[in-house]
Amino acid sequence: MYIKNLVPFLQSSAKVWKLNGGDEAYPPQCPIDLPLSCQNHTAIEDTCCFEYPGGIFLQSQLWDYIPSRSGMDDEELEKQLGPLDSFTIHGLWPDNCGGGFEQFCDDSLAIDDVYYLLNSEQFNDDKRKLEIPGRELLKEMSRLWKSNNGDDESLWIHEYNKHGTCIKTIRPKCYSRWGNREMVVSDVDYKKQSVYDYFRVAYNTYKRLNTTEILKEHGIVPSLTKTYTRHEIQSALNSGFNNQNVHFACDNHHSLKEVWYYHLLQGSLLSEDLVPVGYLGNGNSKCPEKGIKFYPKGYMPSKKGGEGPKGPLYRGIIRVSGYEGFLIRNGHWMIKGTPANFKLVEAPFGGFYLVSRNGYCGLTETGLLTCNKHIGNAGQFEYDADKGYLGYSGSFEWGATVLPHGNVQSFVYLGDAAAKPYQFKLKFIRH
């Protein structure tokens, strides 16, 4: 599958951002005449030189300003929230050309450590001529890539496992094509190199997008009293991103919270040739037209009308919209018997875990909904609290090949995988 109809809607710039540097052991060698990601009209099979389906790279930055407690000094605030004058890194995410995104793509590439990996000799050997040594990169990540639960490394692991494993052009097999054999020891090195490069490129992309300075140039600065319009913030951010439309979001206090920059990619992610493109979605930013706040870090707004309790947990059953029946505990569709009880539990870094008695739910490689997973490979679902619908990877569309009858169960598939005769939404009915 390839995208034919996306090109007219991409407001791509002629300016290509090439972030020079990298690791001399692995210089990517890709044809210079390859199209940008998502702009091909024929299928391109070389997944080491062309990113698909996740060809839209989203660099996300956060403005976390609320401390865990009052009375913290500047040093304590920076340790928890990052530099007081800077947005922090959330992640680098490959969104699909046709909408939505993949997640947790390859369990064999999953990691459970970043600290020891970046401290290892492989990424701190002067002979490697690395753009940034592993220890220095780790130091910068500790300062600029902050978790909302106080455990920064857990966020880094989550970001790589959820998003980094889905980036095809930094898969271990690609390094073997252009690696300098004198600098490579084993296949394990390729896997570690992919992890290092994911964090290195995410850090580099963040450095090129100084959101605080972009806003400051237009008079938008943290304040307890000043407010801004959506137009003012939008115009400022766009001016710093080659006049491309930047997405930003607010929290429940109507305070600026997050900024998303979208890019297309030329060749391998290792080349870091990123082209700004305008935000294509219509997501809810929670920002009003006027009266947007930009609170300084350390401010604790009143809880009245604020965020509400942390870590919501909902219990309920799941119905199939437009048809009879419900989901049972393995994630299949039935019309006879008793619906299973499910729990929606807020995940640590966004979204929800869906849990039945069988275990955590997620999707197989074919898009099949299953509920038999451990928390380590659980999927992260979206939940539309207003409509009650469950989504996954940006899609709220589900489907099945057959209707259930009697004791016969039907498999449930997601989104693109749901090109099935029976299409529906899954509605979570809270108890």
TrEMBL record:
<keyword id="KW-0325">Glycoprotein</keyword>
<dbReference type="InterPro" id="IPR018188">
    <property type="entry name" value="RNase_T2_His_AS_1"/>
</dbReference>
<dbReference type="Pfam" id="PF25488">
    <property type="entry name" value="RNaseT2L_C"/>
</dbReference>
<dbReference type="GO" id="GO:0016787">
    <property type="term" value="F:hydrolase activity"/>
</dbReference>
<feature type="domain" description="RNase T2-like C-terminal">
    <location>
        <begin position="322"/>
        <end position="426"/>
    </location>
</feature>
<comment type="function">
    <text>Rnase which modulates cell survival under stress conditions. Released from the vacuole to the cytoplasm during stress to promote tRNA and rRNA cleavage and to activate separately a downstream pathway that promotes cell death. Involved in cell size, vacuolar morphology and growth at high temperatures and high salt concentration.</text>
</comment>
<keyword id="KW-0926">Vacuole</keyword>
<dbReference type="GO" id="GO:0033897">
    <property type="term" value="F:ribonuclease T2 activity"/>
</dbReference>
<comment type="similarity">
    <text>Belongs to the RNase T2 family.</text>
</comment>
<keyword id="KW-0255">Endonuclease</keyword>
<dbReference type="InterPro" id="IPR057328">
    <property type="entry name" value="RNaseT2L_C"/>
</dbReference>
<feature type="active site">
    <location>
        <position position="90"/>
    </location>
</feature>
<dbReference type="InterPro" id="IPR036430">
    <property type="entry name" value="RNase_T2-like_sf"/>
</dbReference>
<keyword id="KW-0963">Cytoplasm</keyword>
<dbReference type="GO" id="GO:0003723">
    <property type="term" value="F:RNA binding"/>
</dbReference>
<keyword id="KW-0378">Hydrolase</keyword>
<dbReference type="GO" id="GO:0006401">
    <property type="term" value="P:RNA catabolic process"/>
</dbReference>
<dbReference type="InterPro" id="IPR033130">
    <property type="entry name" value="RNase_T2_His_AS_2"/>
</dbReference>
<keyword id="KW-0456">Lyase</keyword>
<dbReference type="GO" id="GO:0005576">
    <property type="term" value="C:extracellular region"/>
</dbReference>
<keyword id="KW-0732">Signal</keyword>
<dbReference type="Pfam" id="PF00445">
    <property type="entry name" value="Ribonuclease_T2"/>
</dbReference>
<dbReference type="GO" id="GO:0005775">
    <property type="term" value="C:vacuolar lumen"/>
</dbReference>
<keyword id="KW-1015">Disulfide bond</keyword>
<dbReference type="InterPro" id="IPR033697">
    <property type="entry name" value="Ribonuclease_T2_eukaryotic"/>
</dbReference>
<keyword id="KW-0540">Nuclease</keyword>
<protein>
    <recommendedName>
        <fullName>Ribonuclease T2-like</fullName>
        <ecNumber>4.6.1.19</ecNumber>
    </recommendedName>
</protein>
<dbReference type="InterPro" id="IPR001568">
    <property type="entry name" value="RNase_T2-like"/>
</dbReference>
<feature type="active site">
    <location>
        <position position="159"/>
    </location>
</feature>
<feature type="active site">
    <location>
        <position position="163"/>
    </location>
</feature>
